[in-house]
Amino acid sequence: MTMTFEHTTSSQRVLFGAGKAAANLAAEVQRLEATRVMAIASESERHLADRVCRDTDIAVWFDDVVQHVPVETAEAARAAAAAHDVDLLVCLGGGSTTGLAKAVALTTGIPIVAVPTTYAGSEATNVWGLTEARTKTTGVDDRVLPATVIYDATLTVSLPVGLSVASGLNGLAHCVDSLWAPKADPINQALALEGARALALALPVVAADPTGLAGREQALYGCYLAAVAFASAGSGLHHKICHVLGGTFDLPHASTHATVLPHVLALNAPAVPELAGRLAAALGRPAADAEEPAAAAVAALGRLYETLSAPSRLADLGFAEADIPEAAARVLKAAPAANPVPVTEADVTALLTDALTGAPPVPAAR
Ligand code: NAD
Predict the structure, then answer these.
(1) Residue ending a domain, choose from 156, 181, 211
(2) Is the CB of 255 under 6 A from ligand 1?
(3) Number of helices and strands (H, E) in the chain?
């Protein structure tokens, strides 16, 4: 079989090491010759940020972090950066915090050093997102890709188990959606499957031993690969659905991804059996003899969800049956033409209905 594809590898420096974030940040600020640093961290992340910035001069702190980056918040952060003549953005926190730094970088070109404390993976992508008038807009721009990412598993031990599970499954969603996203290719599929393997091993360890560093490090490694794969492959159907649910209905990002993922897998996997088989193996449950690969992949994910007591009902997150028609219409407009199966209104309505109520995902008959 021949292989023809085009793949771009983004340039980014990654510093990985438990307990090393403060030293790595101080060295990185020096290497980048920055003298006016703006640190972005929400109030609840400030205790972690203070630890990481202890050896770094901070010109200005910005703590008004809001999920999905409302444009007004982005404008306020840009104004603070301009007022303090900032030459480096350091964001310390989850994807919302990274997203705010990206909004500043988008219009100013100021470089970012990201210190992530969740598994959202935004730090490894050149994707930005802004929300205005109930609509989340995303775009791709290399100016928002952090120059450096500093991973330190000790910063994640305070992430509660429920959030760790949801955030880790957000990472896993990056892996799964990368298998069939518009720019999927063999390289990002390989990264995605290795990311899925690492996350499937790590998350049960994190859930059982949240303060242990072994599971936390594996989870950070997996979520980084997941995000690199996602950045390269682009947004597939899963991400389009979750952007609508987050931007229009203000649902919490990570739990929404976790809840929707099994249903998108059940819809798409039967049309990509080879990838479904590799995913099932990566998740630790290869297809048995004569078992359909799609059924094996859905079962493997289901087993992981059961172990993790993962979120499974959009109804628990603030979504209602009455929201389905508007959500379905918005998803249909955004659905990628290259999805493995054509996306119909009936499919999206059924998918959202199942995700609303927590109905078990069943691979679509093909
Ligand atoms: P988040 O950043 O909103 O964090 C969730 C909560 O966890 C917050 O209250 C935060 O203060 C808290 N928290 C973070 N780290 C903690 C820690 N170590 N200990 C205790 N509490 C901690 O949630 P998220 O899921 O990380 O990020 C979601 C946002 O990121 C969304 O807006 C999403 O669109 C965006 N995102 C963007 C990309 C991208 O490529 N652009 C990728 C993934 C996510």
Answers:
(1) 156
(2) no
(3) 13, 8
Is the residue at 2 inside a domain? no
pTM exceeds 0.85? yes
Q: Is 67 in the pocket of ligand 1 (CB under 6 A)?
A: yes
- What is the DSSP-derived secondary structure letter of residue 117? S
- Tell me: pLDDT of 100 over 90: yes
CA 152-155-160 angle, 5° bins: 135
Residues 320 and 220 in one domain: yes
How much distance in Å is there from the Cα of 319 to the middle of ligand 1?
A: 20
Q: How far is the CA of 95 from the centre of ligand 1 (A)?
A: 4
Distance 82 CA to ligand 1 centre (A): 25
- Asked whether residue 363 is assigned to any structural domain, the reply reads no
Distance (Å) from CA 206 to ligand 1 centroid: 17
Q: Using the 3D structure, point to which of 115, 140, 156 is the last residue of a domain.
A: 156
Q: What is the CA(101)–ligand 1 centre distance, in A?
A: 13
Mean pLDDT of 43-72: 96
185 within a domain of the structure (yes/no): yes
Residue 94 beta carbon below 6 angstroms from any ligand 1 atom: yes
* Residue 133: band (very low, low, confident or very high) from pLDDT cuts 50, 70, 90: confident
pLDDT tens column, 226-243? 999 999 999 999 999 999
Residue 278: which domain range?
161-357
Whether residues 325 and 343 share a domain: the answer is yes
CB 238 within 8 A of CB 258: no
Both 30 and 127 in a single domain?
yes
State yes or no: pLDDT of 364 exceeds 90. Answer: no
Backbone phi, psi, residue 70, to 5°: -60, 145
Cβ–ligand 1 distance for 154 under 6 Å, the answer no
Q: Is the pLDDT of residue 1 over 70?
A: no
CB 189 within 8 A of CB 129: no
- What value does the mean pLDDT of the chain take? 96
Structural domain count of the chain: 2
- Cβ(125) to ligand 1 under 6 A? yes
Q: Is 218 a pocket residue for ligand 1 (Cβ < 6 Å)?
A: no
Question: How many other C-beta atoms are found inside a 10 Å radius of the C-beta of residue 301?
Answer: 26
Amino acid 136: pLDDT: 81
